[in-house]
Amino acid sequence: MTVNLLDLDQPKLAAFFAELGEKPFRAKQLMRWMHHFGVIDFGQMTDVAKTLREKLAQVAVIQPPQVKLEQISEDGTRKWLIDVGAGNGVETVFIPEADRGTLCVSSQVGCALECTFCSTGRQGFNRNLSVSEIIGQLWLANKALGRDPRDQTEEGRERIISNVVMMGMGEPLANFDNVVTALNIMLDDSAYGLSRRRVTVSTSGLVPAIDRLRDECPVALAVSLHAPNDALRDVIVPINKKYPLAELMAACRRYLVKAPRDFVTFEYVMLDGVNDTVEHAKQLLELVRDVPCKFNLIPFNPFPSSGYATSKSENIRRFRDILMQAGYVVTTRKTRGEDIDAACGQLAGKVKDKTRRQAKYMMELAA
Ligand code: SF4
Q: Which protein residues touch ligand 1 with a CB less than 6 Å away?
C-alpha cells in the first residue's frame, strides 16, 4: 500500500525507513524536504541517494490536500477552502498582525458536539481529518504565503506563520491521535520548529483528553468556556453535561503543571442577554478563582437562525471591566476578515452531515 509521508511524524517516519532497511537519519532528511522546503517530488531531494529516491517513489507519496478556493480580505486575512474529498471541505484562516502571523487550523469535517452558538456545530459531523489533512493546512498556507525557506536573509528567515491555533472546524481533542501527530510535526525543528508556547489547542472541555494532552504533547491550552455556571453551559456547550465545570476547572489546574504557559485562556462568546450580565461576570470570577487564566471575549458572529444576537458593545465593555478590575488580562477579539466570512465561528466549510443534525435542527425550527 502506498504511504502518504505527510501522515507521519519523525518517529513514525524513522520506523517507516527502518522497514525499508534504511538508517533513521533519513527521517530527518525527509522531514526537512517535505515541511521545511515544501518539496513533494522525491526527484528534487538532492542529498538522498538516487536508488532510495526511486524506491520511495514506488512505495510512498507526499500528497498535501488540494485548495478549492482562496479568499483574501481587505485587512490581509486569507482563507482557504481545503478539499477533503467526497464533496467535503474544511477551512483554514491566516490572520496577519503586526507582531505575529496566526494560522487557524481545522481538525474535523464538521463537529459532533452541537454547541448551540457555533455554525460548524450546526452543520453536523462527517469525519476526522487525517494527519496529512491537518498538517497539510500549514504546508499549503506556507506555500501560498510565498515563504521561501531557502531565503536565509533576516527577513526571509522570519516566520510568516509564527503561531498556530487549533480553533478551526471541529473539536481537536476528539481527533486526538491525528492532532497530536500533527502537533509533533509543527513542533519538530526539522519541520516547522514552532514553539510550544505558540501552538494552541482549543477544546470545549473533553476532560480525559486534556489530561492526555498534558502528558503526551503539552502545548498552550484554550478552553471554550462561554458560560459561568453548569445550568447555562449545559445549554450552550452540551458536552458540559458529561464533564461539568468543577471537573473542567480541575483538569485545567492539572494541565498547568506541565503546560508551556502558566495560564489557560478561557474563550467566552458574548451572547446578548444570555451570558453577558454583571451577575455572569461575577460568577465567572468565582468559577476561575483557582485557575491562573486570561480571558478572550468573542463578540458573537450571528448566522441565520442561530437564535442568538451579539452582546451590545456597552455590555461587552462592562463585562470586560469587571474581569479586568479583578486583575485579569482580558482581550476582546477583533473581528478579522469579515468581508470573506473568516471570523471566528463563521468557518462553515462544506460538510456532508452523517449525524442528521441538519434534519433534526429543521424539525426543531418547524415545531
Ligand atoms: S464550538 Fe467547537 S466544539 Fe463546539 S460545536 Fe463548534 S467546533 Fe464543535
A: 111, 113-115, 118, 120-121, 170-171, 204, 224
